[in-house]
Amino acid sequence: MSSYKDKKVISIGIVSDLTGLSLRKIRYYEERGLLSPGRTEKGGRKYSFSDVETLMKIAERREEGVQTAEIKKELVKDISRQKVRDEMIKGQLNAQFGLRKR
């Protein structure tokens, strides 16, 4: 079951309003592989709350002068760490309560 934060339901215009980033910058970050919006049937971009948080992190790092290639490496590391944490928590729950992994 995915979190509400991961559902792709927000239009690019709203994301721009929320983040203060131009549509052009948001598209550029997508082109650089920093995030992957969903698509509507007509090809419009749809973003999640998690995507908005990622864009805010990207904007902060860019303001610090960090290049997009380095930001991409950081994002990949963050995802890997989160997966490891999730697996550890599942293992701990299984050990503590005898729950099966799904």
Automatic annotation (TrEMBL):
PANTHER family: HTH-TYPE TRANSCRIPTIONAL REGULATOR TNRA, REDOX-CYCLING DRUG-SENSING TRANSCRIPTIONAL ACTIVATOR SOXR. PROSITE patterns: HTH_MERR_1, HTH_MERR_2. InterPro entries: DNA-bd_dom_put_sf, MerR-type_HTH_dom, MerR_fam. One of its GO terms (molecular function) is DNA binding. This is DNA-binding transcriptional regulator, MerR family. Keywords: DNA-binding, Repressor, Transcription, Transcription regulation. It holds the Pfam family MerR_1. It comes from Mesobacillus persicus. The keyword Cell inner membrane does not apply. It comes from the Bacteria. Residues 9-78 form the HTH merR-type domain.
